[in-house]
Design goal:
single chain, mainly alpha, 9 helices, two-stranded antiparallel ribbon
Length: 198
């Protein structure tokens, strides 16, 4: 009961009965886990399988990053607190929470910026069909340039951090946030890391 009350307070987007359902699902996933974390949480494999089956998330890079974001203590497994609080943002988070979450997914090395290389890695799996006369990586490089230009075009009227003054090909959170506030479709600009509306 104390855990349930505590989780309901920390996962403010769920009511008590919803938190209880999520805890029951967590217990089911822990029981299914055949790792040495059984009893306290479940591992990356169970997490990835769950996100795949529940939300259709298939990109390995995205799934690994989402796992890292859920696993706040960086111990290699998802606890019940990680599970409920992570799902609160993933499923019902505010725009601000989702922007922070998506930015963290895309910031592969955790340095506070999304670099061209990180954009390239995230977008690499987005291209399903390559034209026969084009190098596969060229299409991804083109997408990175388009994304940077789209995010930078927001600031033509109001110069701000997104404008890449030093041409280092990086986006800060402030850059990302402003671009998303101006065009919500840019929230998942570098790959699908949120469940669709269904």
């Amino acid at each position: 009961k104390l855990l349930l009350d505590s989780l309901t307070r920390s996962a403010k987007h769920f009511n008590k009965s919803e938190v209880e359902c999520l805890v029951n699902l967590f217990d089911t996933l822990v029981a299914r886990a055949s790792s040495h974390y059984a009893g306290v949480g479940f591992d990356r494999t169970v997490f990835r399988d769950t996100l795949y089956s529940a939300f259709g998330m298939t990109d390995d890079v995205v799934l690994d990053r989402v796992f890292s974001i859920f696993d706040k203590s960086n111990n290699g497994y998802i606890t019940v607190v990680d599970w409920v609080e992570g799902l609160a943002v993933l499923l019902r988070g505010t725009l601000e929470e989702k922007m922070k979450y998506c930015f963290a997914v895309y910031d592969l090395n955790g340095d506070g910026y999304i670099s061209r290389e990180e954009m390239f890695q995230m977008l690499k799996n987005s291209l399903l069909i390559q034209p026969a006369d084009e190098e596969p990586d060229e299409g991804v490089k083109d997408l990175v340039e388009i994304a940077l230009k789209k995010m930078a075009s927001t600031y033509l009227l109001v110069p701000f951090l997104l404008q890449d003054y030093d041409h280092d090909g990086k986006l800060s959170f402030a850059d990302f946030e402003q671009a998303v506030r101006d065009e919500k479709l840019l929230l998942e600009a570098f790959g699908p890391c949120l469940p669709d509306i269904k």
